[in-house]
Amino acid sequence: MRILYQFICILITSGTFAQTVVSGVVLDAKNSPIEGANVYLEGTYDGASTDAQGSFSFETTETGTQHLLVSMLSYETYSQAGDVSYLKDLKITLYEALNELTGVTLTAGSFKAGDNSKASVLKPLDIVTTAGAAGDFVAALQTLPGTSTVNEDGRLFVRGGAAGETQVFIDGLRVFQPFNATANNIPTRGRFSPFLFKGITFSTGGYSAEYGQALSSVLLLNTTDITDQEKTDISLMSVGGGLGHTEIWGQESLSINANYINLAPYQVLVPSDQDMRWNKPFESISGEAVFRSLGDKSMFKLYTGFNHSNLDIAQADINFEEFVPFSLKNNNLYLNASYKHFFDKEWTLTTGASISNDTNDINVLNNAIDSKETAVHLKAKMGKSFTNRLQLNFGTEYFVQDFDESFGSAGVDPFQYGFDDGLWAGFAETDVYFSNRFAMKLGGRMEHSALLDQTTLSPRFSLAYKSGEKGQFSLAYGDFYQNPWSENLKFDQNLEAEKTSHYILNYQYLDNGKTFRAEGYYKNYDGLVKFNTDMPGFNSVFNNNGGGYATGLDLFWRDNKSIKNLDYWISYSFLDTERDYRNFRERATPNFAPKHSFSLVTKYWVEDLRSQVGFSYNYGSGRPYNDPNKTEYLSEKTKPFNNLSINWAYLLSQQKILYFSISNVAGFNNVNGYQYADSPNDLGFFERRTIRPNADTFFFVGFFWTISQDNNSNQLNNL
């Protein structure tokens, strides 16, 4: 009996000695105690809650290596592994959990549309229902601050930058010729249908290190990943028509569309401008296709687009008694393939390639110019989310550009010239979220051009601080390089890359359907290409001695909640810029840069009439032009630009929509600039003629008919 008693005592004593105390204190990032946090050993029932002082203490019989977990609502879970005997007198700090809905975002210099981002200020519907845009995403983007309307051109001019300083990407891959070919002083349009894209990011500056070869801005277009219904779209317009179809096979789908445009009916209704005669109206046939294949952990997309356009026109020129004939035939083929794979442990691989082939057959006076450009973009990128506070992206890409051109005239053999370039780039960038209020993006980019034999380094940096529940500040800096344009490189390959540095300060306020943005910026230009002739040519002397600056303020306000059924936005831009480039004789404000730009866009839904009506008003102050009769260079200003457009969309049925719009309904007589004679007259004065738009008012009528399996869908909202 005595032996049994001693044995029981030994067991009790051993059990007592096996108890280990786990203790410590839990604090927040400001060293304030956290009450009510759960502290426990993973996989056991041993644990406790913290008291008002943040302290905890509990006993455990576990031995060896254990995982201590600390959890609390609104904080990130804390984990520590170690021998249980060392888990005592701990000082544990919990950090605020990141909230994607209310946390800070990096928004400096960037407008987003259709990507479900809380920073979005446009929706996909806006691209095609903005009065005056007529389905062109570039025209819709010109209602945003930071852009300048150059009526005779039609491309994107951003914050004092020329149109060639903006690059377009589809699914992260470069589009080398994003706009249709056109004649002088006739505005162009983008080549792509907005119906195929789910989201648009328009960066007016300070963009990611992933993208380069753009001095001013980038436009990122993302094609739709998955389609939810099979449908056939038929459109009939006053100037053409289109047909599209989407077919779905399980996790795969194919969308195709074709369009034909002929401006002959329009030119019958609207007489040609007195300075322009159409020998053959503008004609275009185009087609696009997107194939998608969704895997368990992957996504493959193949996009292709083809466009053929031609025109034959005669334009007045003050240096010629007769009209100058000009004809153009353009063929453009673009192919884009991208693949994305999601690995374990939060790794992501994105690869892709794009190729384009663009040919132009131009005849002006007795001269023939034939050009061909073939370009390729190869890209691979890896991404890793280490935690929800730290993400890393890095990758490499290679660009190939082969440009050939020939010039010939009557009785003379064509002369061949051009250039080839291979450009390699590597980039890395990390996003760090310190808290719901503070975030940072840090990255860099390296490029090497074989043609220029030059290597460049571009740091990129941005910060964001959430000042309140609905507002935040953002700050961005970056260096950006771009090779000289083809119009210069085809004559002289002994040039260097041009450079800009961007400095951006942004404030954004979001509140239940209301968005306010204010952004100030400064851009410094260095190494811009100059030449000493009227236009670049074989006899030009080129150099990189140009430079300049652009500074300004952009304001944006959108509200779709205050007034029932009304959605509107207001944009204003102030721009102060000067540059010395091309054949400028001194630093001056270029003719594509108005000092003040303003736009107002409205959309109103009339329930009883089953209609959406709206209008857009655009204003731009006078743009500079050079009067050779004056001693000051580029010192004169054109009259201000004004454009009022209206639109009406009527829902005939769930499957049929009638769309009607009028651009420049008020008939503003906008002046694009002036052309002066090359030589003075007998009195010693240079004569001039006024350059006006091709037509003052543009009518657009369309009928859209969608045949789908979903008869209850609101087609007006899907337009």
Automatic annotation (TrEMBL):
Ranges for domain TonB-dependent receptor plug: 133-213
TonB-dependent receptor-like beta-barrel domain mapped to chain residues: 325-664
Membrane in keyword set: yes
Coiled coil: none
InterPro entries on file: Beta-barrel_TonB, Beta-barrel_TonB_sf, CarboxyPept-like_regulatory, Plug_dom, Plug_dom_sf
Main subcellular location of this protein, as a coarse class: membrane
Keyword Glycoprotein: no
Signal peptide residue numbers: 1-18
Localisation: Cell outer membrane
Pfam families (alphabetical): CarbopepD_reg_2, Plug, TonB_dep_Rec_b-barrel
Keywords: Cell outer membrane, Membrane, Receptor, Signal, TonB box
Superkingdom classification of source: Bacteria
Family from the record: Belongs to the TonB-dependent receptor family.
Protein name: TonB-dependent receptor
Organism: Maribacter flavus
